[in-house]
Amino acid sequence: MRDSSKDIPGRGPAPGGQEDVEELAHAADRLFYAMRRSRTATAGQSAVGLSMAQLALLVPLADDTRGEGLPVSRLAAGAEISVPTATRMLQQLEAKGVVTRRRSPHDERRVLVRLTEDGAARLEAMRGELRSRQFQALSHYTPGERRALAEQLHRLTDVIGGAAPGPERDR
Predict the structure, then answer these.
(1) What domains can be seen in the chain, in order of their start residue?
(2) Nearest to residue 100, comparing CAs of 109, 85, 111, 108?
(3) What angle do CA 86, 165, 27 make, to 5 degrees?
(4) Residue 132: beta bridge partners?
(5) d(Cα 125, Cα 128) in Å, to the nearest integer?
(6) Is the pTM of this model over 0.70?
(7) Is the predicted pLDDT of residue 90 greater than 80, yes or no?
(8) Is the per-residue pLDDT at 1 higher than 60?
(9) Which residue from 13, 33, 32 is spatially nearest to 21, judged by alpha carbons?
(10) What mean pLDDT is predicted for residues 127-144?
């Protein structure tokens, strides 16, 4: 769909397909904000008691297969927040029984964080609620449309990830 309001008066469409790029960028922005609103609404309606910010901080802990805990700095980097902010959030989560924090036996300056059983259950419940909401939304597409959409979203993620500074993201 072409938005002629972006045309320069008397000159026609923007040169070099810029109009298509603008439309795609606008659609990507709308998708990003719609997903954020949906995730926030899910967290707000959930009985799990975790915010989206807390969820971002906790997700790497679910993958801590060795169970030794992960350093606060790594959790902060993964959630794209500062270490002091992560520390405050983790202190609150510890008070709620979601995580435990302890000094590293190898380096007393480092604090290692682990999920408690309750924390793991809460995290899994929240992930399930989010996945259910995604499934509902994506069920409006045919299997073929979902595969094509997934392929294009992976491609867009790779392109944006290559253009943006910072760590590379997994699919």
Answers:
(1) 46-128 (1.10.10.10)
(2) 111
(3) 95
(4) none
(5) 5
(6) no
(7) yes
(8) no
(9) 13
(10) 91
Quick check: 56 and 89 in contact, CB under 8 A? no
- The kind and range of the H/E element at 95 are helix 83-95
User: For the chain, what is the total number of helices (H) and then of strands (E)?
Assistant: 6, 3
pLDDT of residue 12: 46
Mean pLDDT computed over 135-164: 89
In whole angstroms, give the CA distance from residue 22 to residue 53: 30
Q: Give CA–CA dist 66/112, Å, rounded.
A: 12
Q: Read off the tokens for 126.
A: 């929240």
| Calpha distance 110→107 (Å, rounded) | 6
Provide DSSP, 109-164. Answer: T-EEEEE-HHHHHHHHHHHHHHHHHHHHHHTTS-HHHHHHHHHHHHHHHHHHHHHS
Rounded CA separation 46/128 (Å): 11
Inform me whether the pLDDT recorded for 10 exceeds 50: no
Tokens found for residue 96: 């709620």
What's the rounded Cα separation, in Å, for the pair 39 and 130?
7
The two three-digit tokens of residue 165, written as one number: 């500074």
Query: Which residue's structure tokens are 């700095």?
Result: 73
